[in-house]
Design brief:
The protein is mainly alpha-helical and 244 residues long. The protein has one domain (2-243). It is 81% helix and 0% strand. The protein is built from 15 helices and no strands.
Length: 244
């Protein structure tokens, strides 16, 4: 795990070496506040909770996370630095995990900086802070899922723009997997087991379950397995490219 830690620190430092980190955090905080207090009708609802805040996270992440993850491997391949990285005495999975954890930690930092909203809602009323803690955890798991998908898409191409588009499309499909529009498209011809499987793949289904304050093992396991699957796929894609 020492190599994972080295990659993590290297990647995390690279974020703050450019304006990328500050621009990402600024955009995330501005949009999160705008969606919560204006589009979410925070004051009009008359309830002291953060439901409007977390309700928009999947849609914020749909574009912001791919913009962050598109550089994970596409930038390395485009600049040719991936060859240097792969000649170091580290395994592919260590590089993949280190880069992912750095991006996830950076996202966690951006999420933590929204704490004034939490303070505000406690000042205005008496919210269920247990639900809020669970919702923050759910948001972090959701971000991890988006990042894992984005990492895989980034490993498939040299172009950051293509990686961004592929990640947005893949994440959008996973978001809508539990929507009636998608379920109804399968119900007419597919077996019930397949319909249930498609519905269970939805990011929203598991995220919304957590934001209700019910932290179930199946929801945490879903995100853990999804992250593991896409990180494994990322490593396989990189190994195949290296073998070419």
């Amino acid at each position: 795990m020492r190599n994972v830690g080295l990659i993590l620190r290297r990647e995390l430092a690279s974020y703050f070496a450019t304006p990328l980190a500050y621009v990402f955090i600024l955009i995330f905080l501005v949009l999160a506040n705008a969606f919560t207090f204006y589009l979410g009708g925070f004051y009009q609802r008359g309830q002291a909770d953060l439901q409007p805040f977390f309700a928009f996270h999947p849609w914020l992440y749909l574009f912001l996370i791919p913009a962050l993850s598109m550089r994970l491997w596409a930038e390395e391949r485009g600049s040719g630095s991936i060859e240097l990285l792969m000649t170091l005495p580290i395994r592919t999975w260590e590089a993949v995990l280190g880069k992912f954890l750095a991006a996830w930690l950076f996202t966690a930092l951006a999420l933590a900086l929204t704490f004034p909203i939490w303070i505000t809602v406690n000042y205005l009323g008496s919210p269920d802070n247990g639900v809020i803690v669970a919702s923050y955890l759910g948001s972090l798991l959701l971000a991890g899922g988006f990042l894992a998908v984005g990492s895989c898409m980034s490993a498939l191409t040299r172009s950051q723009v293509v990686a961004f588009i592929l990640a947005v499309v893949a994440c959008f499909v996973l978001l809508l997997a539990g929507y009636p529009l998608v379920i109804n498209a399968f119900q007419g011809w597919a077996p019930h087991a397949l319909v249930e499987t498609v519905a269970s793949l939805s990011f929203l289904t598991h995220f919304q379950s957590i934001t209700r304050g019910v932290l179930q093992a199946r929801d945490v396991l879903y995100f853990a397995m999804l992250i593991a699957f896409f990180l494994f796929t990322t490593a396989v894609a990189l190994d195949l490219r290296k073998a070419e």
